[in-house]
Specification:
single chain; mainly beta; three-stranded antiparallel sheet; 6 strands
């Protein structure tokens, strides 16, 4: 997830605080807040290009770990265990979930974000 204003990779989920947040949430858009520039914006947890791969539904993390189905959460966990659906865990938010999606480990790169620097005229 990248901030649309400063393009940093530090946005985190923001709490829903108004009726507008819940109304926009019907489209699966969630509120996010950038830690660098403090801008609040709406976005999906996963980019459209990667929506068919396993990712955490809460934070959008693609670097999930496969765990034993005994640790799966939910009221119908026994149904998923019976069907042998893979269970995953997101390390940053500690979310455990079942998923039918394709597993592909997508790890974000740790490249520094280039900032715009005003060019100063070079004296001749």
């Amino acid at each position: 997830m990248l901030c649309p204003v400063c393009h940093s990779d530090s946005p985190r989920r923001s709490r829903r605080s108004s009726v507008k947040d819940y109304a926009v949430g019907v489209t699966r858009l969630r509120p996010w807040r950038c830690r660098v520039c403090d801008v609040r914006f709406y976005a999906w947890a996963a980019p459209i290009k990667y929506v068919y791969y396993v990712h955490c539904g809460l934070c959008g993390n693609f670097d999930v770990q496969r765990i034993s189905s005994e640790h799966g959460m939910g009221m119908f966990a026994w149904v998923f265990r019976l069907m042998r659906v893979p269970t995953y865990r997101c390390a940053p938010c500690r979310n455990r979930f079942f998923s039918f999606r394709i597993y592909r480990r997508i790890v974000p790169t740790k490249q520094p974000v280039e900032t715009k620097v005003e060019s100063q005229p070079v004296p001749h």
